[in-house]
Specification:
This protein is mainly beta. Helices cover 5% and strands 29% of the residues.
């Protein structure tokens, strides 16, 4: 995004593939060589569905999970407890969620975002990224603090298991050890060993789109004039030489998003901190050349963007694709080094609106 400011949105702890709470790669306690088999032992039954795991509680409530430990799962899988009505996840989005993590071998909780009703105020961690209890037999002390994760940054099995789940759902995920922490040798501090499968109960409160999703529109004068097309899912322009700039900025909706949510007016003080997630690319109208390649999952504070983004994306639905043709006063009056643009040039953007927070 022009004038991009990337906030610290990803507050993950245990789900991050390469880090624990200290930022170091976890290693088994007392040895650099993982102990035990990388697959569940013969004594641990391996299941191919989650029917034996019972989840009680409505979405938004602290879930109660019952099963007979030890247990292991064969592949990443899910069981929808309460189905939402939002778009289905593709496994690459950012999601806003509450979750509870349980070790399928021990039956113990090891991480989560729901409040522990047995924790006192002094015992409850106020920092959602704080280390979980080192005692695996004790419930994790925490406040209810929904968080945001990028699915591509989590352990592989989480993204695979949650794929296809509608936004608004409560879902039970089962993740085999090979798709969790085997490659890291387990996580000794919370008693996750090599070979341990994991269960997660997840409330998918909201999520971004992976790309523009909705109804394609027709009769877009500037899209036609600038040679708009889509190949292999990536939009592009073929700008004719000598194309004259518009007298005022243009904002054409190429795909109207299916969401009922829209982008607010970022020029207003109450929206000053609103964060937008987009895919986008940019062209120089003068040269016809691409000046910013197709950029995916770009996060920025919309109020910090160039004027044409603030006004051009206002009231557009989440999930939309928008063509912005921005004269200098709405883009870069003095030109720019990044993107490479001469003073007085008009910049053209194709923007997929994936999320607004």
């Amino acid at each position: 995004m022009p004038k991009k400011i990337v906030p610290a949105l990803i507050a993950g702890l245990l789900l991050l593939t390469t880090a624990c709470s200290s930022g170091e790669t976890p290693t088994p306690s007392g040895s650099e060589t993982p102990t035990g088999s990388a697959t569940p032992t013969a004594e641990i039954p391996t299941v191919d569905n989650l029917d034996a795991v019972k989840v009680e509680g409505k979405i938004g409530e602290d879930p109660k999970v019952e099963f007979t430990a030890p247990m292991a799962v064969a592949t990443p899988m899910n069981k929808i407890i309460e189905e939402g009505k939002g778009h289905k996840l593709e496994g690459t989005e950012y999601i806003y969620l509450n979750y509870l993590g349980i070790n399928a071998r021990t039956g113990n909780e090891f991480d989560g975002t729901w409040a522990d009703p047995n924790a006192s105020a002094s015992e409850t961690a106020a920092d959602p990224s704080a280390s979980p209890s080192p005692t695996p037999t004790a419930a994790v002390k925490r406040e209810t603090t929904p968080t945001i994760f990028g699915l591509s940054e989590l352990i592989p099995g989480f993204a695979k298991a949650i794929k296809g789940v509608p936004v608004g759902s409560r879902v039970l995920l089962g993740i085999p050890s090979s798709e969790a922490y085997d490659s890291q040798g387990g996580v000794a501090s919370i008693d996750i060993k090599v070979g341990d499968s994991l269960f997660f109960v997840v409330d998918v409160l909201d999520a971004s789109y992976a790309q523009a999703t909705g109804k394609e529109t027709t009769g877009n004068e500037w899209a036609d004039k600038l040679g708009y097309k889509v190949e292999d899912g990536v939009p592009s322009l073929t700008i004719p030489e000598g194309t004259a700039a518009p007298e005022k900025m243009v904002a054409e909706t190429l795909i109207e998003g299916e969401s009922s949510s829209t982008i607010p007016d970022a020029s207003k003080e109450e929206n000053a901190s609103g964060t937008i997630l987009t895919n986008f690319k940019a062209y120089s109208l003068k040269t016809g050349q691409e000046v910013t390649a197709w950029t995916k999952n770009d996060i920025g504070v919309l109020a910090k963007a160039i004027p044409g983004w603030i006004s051009g994306l206002k009231d557009k639905k989440i999930g939309s694709r928008v063509l912005l043709v921005l004269p200098p006063e709405d883009g870069f009056p003095e030109g720019s080094n990044d993107p490479a643009l001469e003073a007085g040039d008009t910049i053209v953007y194709i923007v997929d609106i994936l999320w607004y927070m």
